[in-house]
Amino acid sequence: MGKFKGRLAFLRDLDALGPTQAWLESVPSEKIAHFAGEARVTNVADLRKVLDEDKRFTLIVSLLHTVRTGVRDDVVTMFCKWMTAIHTKGRDQLETLQEVHRAESERLLGVFGDVLDGVREALIPAEQQTGYESAGAAANAQENRGRAADRGG
Protein backbone atom coordinates (compact mmCIF):
# COMPACT_ATOMS: atom_id res chain seq x y z
CA MET A 1 0.00 0.00 0.00
CA GLY A 2 3.01 2.33 0.48
CA LYS A 3 3.80 2.39 -3.24
CA PHE A 4 0.18 3.17 -4.04
CA LYS A 5 0.06 6.08 -1.60
CA GLY A 6 3.35 7.40 -2.96
CA ARG A 7 2.06 7.29 -6.54
CA LEU A 8 -1.19 8.95 -5.46
CA ALA A 9 0.72 11.75 -3.71
CA PHE A 10 2.90 12.20 -6.81
CA LEU A 11 -0.23 12.42 -8.98
CA ARG A 12 -1.69 15.05 -6.64
CA ASP A 13 1.52 17.08 -6.95
CA LEU A 14 1.43 16.81 -10.75
CA ASP A 15 -2.25 17.80 -10.82
CA ALA A 16 -1.46 20.83 -8.65
CA LEU A 17 0.83 22.19 -11.38
CA GLY A 18 -2.12 22.88 -13.66
CA PRO A 19 -4.54 21.49 -16.24
CA THR A 20 -2.12 20.19 -18.85
CA GLN A 21 -4.97 18.64 -20.87
CA ALA A 22 -6.55 22.08 -21.30
CA TRP A 23 -3.23 23.67 -22.25
CA LEU A 24 -2.60 21.05 -24.93
CA GLU A 25 -6.13 20.53 -26.24
CA SER A 26 -5.31 21.85 -29.73
CA VAL A 27 -2.08 19.82 -30.02
CA PRO A 28 -2.37 16.32 -31.55
CA SER A 29 -1.37 13.45 -29.24
CA GLU A 30 1.44 12.39 -31.59
CA LYS A 31 2.98 15.85 -31.31
CA ILE A 32 2.62 15.77 -27.52
CA ALA A 33 4.45 12.43 -27.41
CA HIS A 34 7.17 13.82 -29.71
CA PHE A 35 7.62 17.00 -27.64
CA ALA A 36 7.67 14.97 -24.40
CA GLY A 37 10.35 12.68 -25.85
CA GLU A 38 12.39 15.69 -26.90
CA ALA A 39 12.05 17.25 -23.43
CA ARG A 40 12.96 13.94 -21.78
CA VAL A 41 16.34 13.78 -23.54
CA THR A 42 17.08 17.47 -23.08
CA ASN A 43 18.81 18.52 -19.87
CA VAL A 44 17.83 21.69 -17.99
CA ALA A 45 20.80 23.70 -19.27
CA ASP A 46 19.92 22.91 -22.89
CA LEU A 47 16.26 23.60 -22.22
CA ARG A 48 17.18 27.08 -20.97
CA LYS A 49 19.03 27.67 -24.23
CA VAL A 50 15.84 27.21 -26.24
CA LEU A 51 15.18 30.81 -27.24
CA ASP A 52 11.57 30.39 -28.23
CA GLU A 53 9.68 30.61 -24.95
CA ASP A 54 6.53 29.01 -26.45
CA LYS A 55 8.53 26.00 -27.62
CA ARG A 56 10.20 25.66 -24.20
CA PHE A 57 6.82 25.88 -22.50
CA THR A 58 5.34 23.33 -24.95
CA LEU A 59 8.20 20.87 -24.31
CA ILE A 60 7.83 21.16 -20.52
CA VAL A 61 4.03 20.94 -20.56
CA SER A 62 4.13 17.98 -22.96
CA LEU A 63 6.56 16.15 -20.67
CA LEU A 64 4.46 17.02 -17.62
CA HIS A 65 1.29 15.84 -19.37
CA THR A 66 2.89 12.57 -20.48
CA VAL A 67 4.27 11.85 -17.01
CA ARG A 68 0.94 12.76 -15.43
CA THR A 69 -0.92 10.40 -17.78
CA GLY A 70 1.54 7.59 -17.02
CA VAL A 71 1.25 8.11 -13.27
CA ARG A 72 -2.54 8.18 -13.50
CA ASP A 73 -2.42 4.88 -15.42
CA ASP A 74 -0.12 3.44 -12.74
CA VAL A 75 -2.49 4.52 -9.97
CA VAL A 76 -5.48 2.99 -11.73
CA THR A 77 -3.60 -0.26 -12.40
CA MET A 78 -2.40 -0.47 -8.79
CA PHE A 79 -5.92 0.23 -7.53
CA CYS A 80 -7.40 -2.50 -9.75
CA LYS A 81 -4.79 -5.00 -8.54
CA TRP A 82 -5.45 -4.00 -4.95
CA MET A 83 -9.22 -4.44 -5.41
CA THR A 84 -8.65 -7.81 -7.11
CA ALA A 85 -6.56 -8.95 -4.14
CA ILE A 86 -9.26 -7.80 -1.71
CA HIS A 87 -11.93 -9.55 -3.78
CA THR A 88 -9.93 -12.78 -3.95
CA LYS A 89 -9.23 -12.72 -0.21
CA GLY A 90 -12.91 -12.06 0.51
CA ARG A 91 -14.01 -14.91 -1.76
CA ASP A 92 -11.56 -17.27 -0.04
CA GLN A 93 -12.86 -16.23 3.38
CA LEU A 94 -16.45 -16.70 2.21
CA GLU A 95 -15.68 -20.22 0.96
CA THR A 96 -14.02 -21.03 4.30
CA LEU A 97 -17.04 -19.74 6.22
CA GLN A 98 -19.42 -21.66 3.97
CA GLU A 99 -17.44 -24.86 4.56
CA VAL A 100 -17.48 -24.33 8.33
CA HIS A 101 -21.20 -23.60 8.33
CA ARG A 102 -21.92 -26.49 5.97
CA ALA A 103 -20.24 -28.93 8.37
CA GLU A 104 -22.12 -27.44 11.32
CA SER A 105 -25.43 -27.58 9.42
CA GLU A 106 -24.86 -31.22 8.51
CA ARG A 107 -24.09 -32.03 12.14
CA LEU A 108 -27.24 -30.22 13.30
CA LEU A 109 -29.34 -32.03 10.69
CA GLY A 110 -27.97 -35.34 11.99
CA VAL A 111 -28.92 -34.38 15.55
CA PHE A 112 -32.35 -33.27 14.36
CA GLY A 113 -32.81 -36.64 12.60
CA ASP A 114 -31.92 -38.43 15.84
CA VAL A 115 -34.46 -36.30 17.72
CA LEU A 116 -37.15 -37.12 15.15
CA ASP A 117 -36.36 -40.84 15.48
CA GLY A 118 -36.71 -40.53 19.25
CA VAL A 119 -40.06 -38.74 18.92
CA ARG A 120 -41.35 -41.41 16.51
CA GLU A 121 -40.34 -44.17 18.91
CA ALA A 122 -42.05 -42.39 21.78
CA LEU A 123 -45.33 -41.91 19.86
CA ILE A 124 -45.64 -45.41 18.35
CA PRO A 125 -46.91 -48.16 20.71
CA ALA A 126 -44.31 -50.76 21.63
CA GLU A 127 -45.74 -53.60 19.54
CA GLN A 128 -45.89 -51.43 16.40
CA GLN A 129 -42.31 -50.13 16.60
CA THR A 130 -40.96 -52.62 14.07
CA GLY A 131 -42.62 -54.23 11.09
CA TYR A 132 -41.68 -57.74 12.32
CA GLU A 133 -43.14 -57.22 15.78
CA SER A 134 -46.38 -55.72 14.49
CA ALA A 135 -46.84 -58.60 11.99
CA GLY A 136 -46.25 -61.10 14.78
CA ALA A 137 -48.69 -59.27 17.06
CA ALA A 138 -51.36 -59.25 14.33
CA ALA A 139 -50.87 -63.00 13.75
CA ASN A 140 -51.12 -63.67 17.51
CA ALA A 141 -54.30 -61.59 17.77
CA GLN A 142 -55.90 -63.47 14.87
CA GLU A 143 -54.84 -66.80 16.35
CA ASN A 144 -56.35 -65.83 19.71
CA ARG A 145 -59.64 -64.85 18.00
CA GLY A 146 -59.69 -68.16 16.17
CA ARG A 147 -59.26 -70.14 19.42
CA ALA A 148 -61.94 -68.14 21.10
CA ALA A 149 -64.34 -68.89 18.24
CA ASP A 150 -63.50 -72.63 18.47
CA ARG A 151 -64.34 -72.60 22.15
CA GLY A 152 -67.61 -71.06 21.36
CA GLY A 153 -66.94 -67.65 22.72
TrEMBL record:
Residues 144-153 have a biased composition (Basic and acidic residues). The lineage of its organism: Bacteria, Bacillati, Actinomycetota, Actinomycetes, Streptosporangiales. This is Flagellar motor switch protein FliG C-terminal domain-containing protein. Residues 131-153 are annotated as: Disordered. It comes from the Bacteria.
